[in-house]
Specification:
Layout: H1 2-70, H2 76-82, E1 87-93, E2 96-105, E3 111-120, E4 128-140, H3 142-145, E5 150-153, E6 157-165, E7 169-172, E8 177-184, E9 190-192, E10 196-200, E11 205-207, E12 210-212, E13 216-220, E14 224-231, E15 245-248, H4 271-282, E16 286-287, H5 290-297, E17 298-301, E18 312-316, E19 320-331, H6 332-337, H7 343-349, E20 353-356, E21 360-372, E22 382-386, E23 390-394, E24 399-403, E25 410-415, E26 419-423, E27 429-435, E28 439-447, E29 460-469
């Protein structure tokens, strides 16, 4: 009997131990399942957050595409009208939802905010919500901003004479930069898709980087230059300028900052031209000929008949965007075609005058700006009344400029053809020049290279200033 009792006690203890082990296993299993479920939930939540961020970023890209395709030119009123139009709500995207994406003014200058809110999944449990805020700055087209403001060509830039500046760049996207003569005060870079050929005179100086897709050749005596030279091919080290110069040659295609962006599309078949033409029409400043433009904006006093004594003529360029079909003559030719015929004494005693008091842009097929050799003797025009930045944009040809007397304001030039500058001395200054074909400068030119001059109608782009994710 005692033996049976012992066996019974052992069986009970074994059963108790088994139950205890099973309980522990069940607890561990439950804990494992709970932990696994929690980990899966956390992983799903994190994955949903990542997908929601991706969808919010897609909303930002949607807004940037709008800017790329619809924001065509610079004008503050145009920007104010354009940006509020972009609002997208409840856009389905990759099983999620772009709840809202919009563009609005930041409250400062030309800075704008893109705000995109999204969620994933579109419906159901475990939805994740993300927000992306991007600050952008509206500025000139990428070609115009490359290296800062300056004189730029989609082909080659050729200087024969003297250049005086207080900063800025010289850019020849697919061709050469050829500098013959005096260069003073340059504070920007020199960039050429092919060669930089520099025959310098005593007194030349400047600083900045020089980049050439092929070779850099410097000859003559250069007073001082500070900066870095990059060349896809050779650098003529024998004629390196005095100063702190660092040379990187035989770089091939490995030159930082290359390739240079392309010239903007601004021909008469472009969306840009249609937009500025529409703006000019809305402002009542679209003209089918140069003569029609002069007829409206030129005041002519014929003076005393025959002799033309006390005769005068003043062309006032209106603010905003003006579009003129054909060639625009900002010259004596334009005044004479409009009826200014002062006679012998009148031409000796007075000259026609151009006035530009507010930031303006004139768009035409081709532009001839010729103030002539002298503001007397009927051989020129008086451009001292240009007191504000004036944009001269040619969409079906080039811009030629000639003036011995300078303008009071500054000029911004964009030509779908060549830019030709020829004068011995001029007080006129250029904030920037951009040409689809060659830039040819003869004589003396003053370059202001203003960082903040964007005449109305200038093709624009944008720069991303900040990117914030929430």
């Amino acid at each position: 009997m005692r033996l049976l009792s012992c066996l019974g006690d052992n069986r009970g203890q074994a059963m108790l131990a088994l139950v205890s082990i099973l309980a522990v296993i069940m607890l561990l299993g439950t804990a494992a399942v709970t932990l696994a479920a929690g980990a899966k939930t956390e992983a799903t939540a994190e994955e949903n957050r990542a997908k929601a961020l991706y969808i919010a970023e897609a909303g930002v890209e949607m807004a940037l595409d709008y800017l790329q395709n619809d924001l065509l030119y610079y004008d503050r009123q145009y920007l104010k009208d354009k940006f509020p139009r972009f609002v997208r709500t409840n856009e389905e995207y990759q099983e999620g939802l772009i709840e809202e994406v919009k563009i609005q003014w930041s409250g400062q200058g030309d800075d704008y905010l893109i705000t995109s809110r999204a969620r994933y999944p579109k419906e159901g449990a475990m939805q994740a919500f993300r927000k992306v805020t991007v600050k952008i700055r509206v500025q000139e087209n990428a070609f115009l901003t490359y290296g800062g403001p300056g004189i730029k060509s989609d082909r080659s830039v050729n200087f024969f004479g003297g250049v005086s500046s207080n900063g800025g760049s010289i850019v020849a996207r697919t061709g050469d930069v050829t500098l013959v003569g005096l260069l003073q005060g340059t504070g920007g870079g020199i960039y050429a898709g092919r060669d930089v050929q520099w025959t310098a005179l005593v007194g030349s100086s400047g600083q900045g980087e020089i980049k050439a897709g092929n070779d850099v050749n410097i000859s003559g005596v250069l007073s001082a230059w500070t900066g870095t030279i990059w060349a896809g091919g050779n650098v003529d080290r024998f004629h390196l300028p005095l100063g702190q110069v660092e040379v990187h040659d035989q770089c091939g295609s490995n030159i930082p900052g290359f390739p240079i962006p392309e010239f903007p599309v601004v021909d008469k078949n472009s969306a840009w031209y249609e937009a500025v033409k529409s703006a000019a029409q809305d402002q009542g400043q679209y003209y089918t000929s140069c003569n029609n433009f002069y007829t409206k904006h030129c005041e002519i006093n014929k003076g005393i008949p025959i002799l033309g004594i006390l005769s005068s003529a003043t062309l006032t360029i209106p603010p905003g965007i003006t579009v003129v079909e054909g060639t625009l003559y900002l010259s004596g030719q334009g005044f004479y075609d409009a009826g200014y015929q002062p006679g012998l004494l009148g031409s000796l005693l007075s000259t026609p005058k151009i006035i530009c008091a507010q930031s303006s842009t004139v768009v035409a097929d081709r532009i001839v700006f010729d103030a002539g050799l002298l503001p007397l003797l009927g051989l020129g025009i008086d451009v001292s009344g240009i007191k504000a930045p004036l944009g001269l944009f040619a969409v079906n040809g080039g811009v030629s400029y000639n003036a011995l007397v300078g303008s009071g304001g500054t000029l911004c030039v964009m030509a779908n053809g060549t830019f030709i500058y020829g004068t011995l001395a001029s007080g006129s200054t250029f904030d920037w020049v951009a040409a689809k074909q060659d830039v040819n400068v003869s004589g003396l030119i003053t370059l202001n290279f203003a960082q903040d001059t964007i005449p109305p109608g200038t093709p624009v782009g944008y720069e991303i200033i900040s990117w914030k994710e929430e």
